[in-house]
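Thought: the user asked what SDR family NAD(P)-dependent oxidoreductase looks like in 3D. I have the sequence; next I should run the structure tool and report back without guessing.
Action: structure_tool
Action Input:
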Amino acid sequence: MKKLEGKIALVTGAAMGLGLADAKMLAEEGARVLLTDIDEDRVRKEAEAIGENARSIKLDVSNPEDWKLAIKKVEEFFGGLDILVNNAGIVIVADPENCTLEDFRKTNSIMNEGVFLGMQIALPLLKKSSNGSIINMCSTATHLGYPPFFSYSAAKGAVRSMTKSMAIHCQMTGLPIRCNSIHAGGIETPMVQNVQGRGDESPIEIPLNGVLPSDSLGRPEDVARMVVFLASDDARFLTGAEFLVDNGLVARPADIVQ
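Observation:
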């Protein structure tokens, strides 16, 4: 039996990158998945490619009305919700001195307020699950200083804290919902390609198997495997936790980095 047979998932930012990898692997493990993204055409094509266990809808995560519609649609399509993956995000490159208030607010409206809205609006439906799982995509930027990604780091730091608060809220109120965060290091996605100035036309070839060297980026599947685990009943004793998927980046002392 597949790990997520009978489960229903909603993934944000699922048109590409980590969100798409998450949606694909959740479906491969038996879940029915609603892919959401602000890019309506692209996310629809990706859902169609996954097959009958996937549907799609446009979702601007900073818009509460969009969230209400998405939660309504996942119930209409599949009958409920067990797994919420808050993945949607952007990166604006600007250090503390050059980050504008507009940049800061835009970043936080998507990755901070968007996660807040998703968790709050999805909660009534998740309450009906026997083992609900909220998975919030964070970053090693919550553990390390990245001046060029100032607003991004601020938003992810808020998500790290909200994750723990939501986890304990669910425990204290007797809700059958776990909430954890994933803190990924550098992953070969369109977002990282753009930040590095490569564009998605110049992907780095990363092996599918085996241990990777310290300077390697990861593959989106490396994160998606953790998403599947945290979504499954195997992770029933895990809540309020943070999982570093970073090839040892945070653990590695700076003076030995080559």
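Thought: the tool returned a structure. Summarizing for the user.
Final Answer: Structure for SDR family NAD(P)-dependent oxidoreductase predicted. The first strand starts at residue 8 and ends at 11. The chain has one domain: 8-256.
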